[in-house]
Specification:
This protein is of the alpha+beta class and about 150 residues long. The chain has a single domain, classed as Sufe protein. Chain: A, CATH 3.90.1010.10. Helix content is about 45%, strand content about 20%. The chain is built from 4 helices and 4 strands; from the N terminus they run αβββαααβ. A 4-stranded mixed sheet has the order 3-2-1-4, covered by helices on one side. Strand 2 and strand 3 form a beta hairpin. Helix 3 packs antiparallel against helix 4. The termini are far apart. It binds zinc ion. The site of zinc ion has 8 residues, from helix 2.
């Protein structure tokens, strides 16, 4: 079990050092900003949504390892998904990191499951979910920056 934990941490560190889908997105038609005042994580998410499908998405910003890795993994996971699938994944991801998914039928979230460990650290849950809250704001075209507080 501890070997598994080490592997997971390695994946988080890897995504933090070399985040995927990082930078501005040319041709984006949805944007949202997110801020986690507890930790100081800040990110801007840009999406290109065509006919209800997320064709492309990228993020920029500064944050801790967990928030950056979460945004990196999220952008990988959501490329090519429909808006409805993305919202369903948000629900499952939130259940995963808050530890409330036990009663439900388990849904595989792939690599995103490395972030399940944050459930033991309530402050870190906000770091892990920041990108997802920002995603929802972008899909719903919310103009105000999102705050986890
Ligand atoms: Zn953070």
């Amino acid at each position: 079990m501890s070997e598994l934990r080490d592997l997971y941490q390695e994946l988080i560190v890897d995504h933090y050092r070399r985040p995927h889908n990082y930078g501005p997105l040319v041709g984006a038609n949805r944007h949202a900003e997110g801020f986690n005042p507890l930790c100081g994580d800040r990110l801007t998410l840009s999406l290109n949504v065509v006919d209800g499908m997320i064709k492309e998405l990228r993020f920029e910003g500064v944050g801790c390892a967990i928030s950056t890795a979460s945004a990196s993994l999220m952008t990988d996971a959501l490329k090519g998904k429909t808006e409805a699938q993305a919202e369903a994944m948000f629900q499952h991801f939130q259940a995963l990191v808050t530890g409330t998914d036990k009663a439900e039928a388990p849904v595989s979230l792939g690599k995103l499951e490395v972030l399940a460990g944050v459930r033991e650290f309530p402050v870190r849950v906000k770091c892990a979910t920041l990108a997802w809250h920002t995603l929802l704001a972008a899909l719903h075209s919310v103009k105000q920056p999102v705050s986890t507080e």
